[in-house]
Amino acid sequence: MSAPKHRVIPLLLRPLLLRPLTLRTAWVATAVGCLAALFVSLPGRIQHLAVVSDPDVRAGLARLRISPQAYMGYHIGFDTLTVAGYFLVALIIVLRRRGDAMAGFVALVLIAFGCALPSVVYALAASVPLWDAPPGPVQSVGWLLLLVFAYVFPDGRFVPRWTSLLALGAAAWTGGFFVFGDTLFSGRPLAIAAALAVWVGWFATGAAAQFYRYLFVESPMQRQQTKLVVLGFAGTLFGVLVAVAAHVAALAGVSAPADAALLRLASTAVFSLSALLLPIAIALAMLRYRLFDVDIVINRAIVYGTVTGLLALVYTGCVGLLNLALGIVVARAPSVAIVAATLATAALFQPLRGRVQARVDQRFDRGRYDARRTLEAFGAVARERVDLSDLAGDLVSVVDQTMRPSHVSLWLRPSGASPEPEGAGVAAVTAPDARAES
Question: Is 428 helix (H, G, I), strand (E, B) or coil?
Answer without folding.
Answer: strand
